[in-house]
Every structure is written in structure tokens, then in C-alpha cells.
Amino acid sequence: MNRDPEQAPIVALAPMQDVTDLAFMRTLTRIRCLPDFWMTPYFRSTRTTCVMPDDLLLCIRENPSGLPIWAQLAGSSASSLLRDAESLMQLPIVGINLNVGCPSPLVNRHGAGAALLKNLPLLREITQVLRAQLPRGAWSVKCRLGWENPEEFSKVLDVLCASRPDLLIVHARTRKQLYAGKPNRAAVQLAVQRANCPVLANGDVQSEDDARDWLHEAHPAGLMIGRGLVRNPYLLRRLRGGSAPSPQEMQEYYAILLEETGLLLKRYTPAGHCNRMKKFLAFCYADFSAEAEYALRRCTDPMEMSRLLESGRQFPSAS
Ligand SMILES: Cc1cc2nc3c(=O)[nH]c(=O)nc-3n(C[C@H](O)[C@H](O)[C@H](O)COP(=O)(O)O)c2cc1C
Prior knowledge:
This protein has helices at 22-30, 54-62, 78-88, 105-109, 120-133, 153-162, 185-194, 208-218, 227-231, 235-239, 247-264, 270-281, 290-298, 302-311, and strands spanning 10-13, 38-44, 69-74, 95-100, 139-143, 167-171, 199-202, 222-225. It is of the alpha/beta class. Helix 1 (22-30) packs antiparallel against helix 11 (247-264) and helix 5 packs parallel to helix 6. The site of flavin mononucleotide has 22 residues, from strand 2 and helix 9.
């Protein structure tokens, strides 16, 4: 489905296990950089049970901004996924997103995530069952292009489109590529042409220029952005015509994230607080001097971390 060029592109926050948690959602809310919707990292659905971690449930229950939130499921059994989709639908979510992209060996060994890309009959069964049970507007998929080769995508797309998703998000890489290599814009364009629903492009949006290239070359309804928003959440404001962040705003972002991260720890220790914060910083180090990065990676004292975050940033963000 082609985007109406008059309409602003949708911009969503990509789900990232252990990163896009309630602390991050609260931080974006406090600095007033909000996406159009949230999506939880995946709940793992197995034959016996669905793992319902407290931190994911908190994102849904406390959803600080009240924006629409999708719950993502990863699994490989149609009946178990259906059971878990029905139970998640009791919560205040807009719908269910099926994870067809996770490259984790543990998840793939059980046939889930990206492994579904090499088992199209199973992918068909799961997507048909979920579509049949989920209300209109409540069924979406986030996929990669294939297991090994982007040429697999055409058949994957056939299967996904047959389930009439309400939203399709394409991380434009194969499982083999993991998180590196240039995202394949032509594949997203193919999805835009074939799918009868909004398609969001995902992969490597770090700047306004990256976003413009995606929109120009593949014409998706919008973008889903992960690592780029952790590094610079003000990119959301920039993509809506606002200004790039000042150094003070970036400092405020780090300070609020550090504070919110500490508040969510179940058993507080200073070293645990710093370690949790490093999950975010992994995507921010490029903006710090080599000395500051070295010190941040070793830091176990939140006061010291706060000082390093204030003084160690050396480059203005890309946009
Ligand atoms: C640490 C980490 C955790 C992730 N967890 C999930 C997840 O739970 N579900 C999912 O669909 N994708 C997950 N992803 C993939 C991202 O949603 C996204 O597709 C990928 O990072 C590419 O987008 P980006 O370049 O904007 O980050 C994860 C990625 C990272 C780096």
C-alpha cells in the first residue's frame, strides 16, 4: 500500500529486548519525544506456557503516554500462539504482532522467530490461525527478508499477504545478515506494492537523511526505528520538522534515562544500575570520546556514570 505523500510518515519505536523497557518509554515521555506507537519486545510462546516477564507486562499496564501499544509474540505452534494471543488481548493493547525475524539461536532452535522464514507451510498455518481469530486492526507481522537470501522474500511475502495483516513491518535484512549489511530497500518497495496494508521500513535509520532515503526509495507508510532512537530520541522530533537536540537536551536525556533505569531495578545495587544503563549506552558510545567510552564501559558507580555522561560526549548527534 503506497503512502499518501501528503500524510506524515508513521514513526514507531522498534521493540528491543532489554532495551525498550518501561524506563525507556518513561524517558521518551518525559523528554516529549514520542513515536506513533509502541511495540513490546517478544513474549515467548511455547507449547506448555507463555513466558510473561513482569518487565514486558509493565510496559503494557503502565504505558506512560497512553499511545497505542502492540504486544509481540514469538513462537512456532499455531495453537499455543493462539492461546497466548487471546490472553494478551485481555490487556490494554491494540493487537498482536508476530515475530518472524528474531535471529537468536535459542529462539530459532525451537522453530520460532526468523526460523519461520524457512518453514513457509508452518508460517502459513500460524498466520492464518491468528488472522482468523484477531479482530480487524489487531493483526500485524514484523519480518526479515529470508533466512539466507533476500530472494526468499517474494515467497515469504506471499504467505504473509495471504493472512491480510493490518500492518507489516519489514526489517530489510536476512537472518544471515543479523544486524549488519545494507538494508535492502527494493525488498521493502516490493512489500509496499504487494501488501494491502501499511508497510513500515526498518533498518539503520540513524539520521534524517537515512529516513528521507527510505521514504524516497521504498515509499513505505513509515519507519520503525530502534538503535537510532536509543542513540538520539530527538530524531523523532527532527523527523516531524523540529530541531536537532542541543547538547543540554542530550544531557537531559541521559540523566533522565539513568534516573528511570534506577527506579525500575528490582533489587538495587549501584553496579546493577550501571550495568542496566550500559544496555542503552551500547548504542550511544559512538557519540563519546574514546576515553569516556572506556570509562563508561567499566563504570560501576551511578554518580560517576552521571558525571561521565555529562562531560564525555564529543560529537553533535547526526540529526
Ligand atoms: C538488543 C536488541 C533487541 C531486539 N529485540 C527485538 C525483539 O524483541 N523483537 C523484534 O521484533 N526485534 C527485536 N530487535 C530488532 C529491532 O527491532 C530492529 O528490527 C533492528 O534493530 C533493526 O532496526 P534498527 O536498525 O532501527 O535498530 C532487537 C534488536 C536489538 C539490537
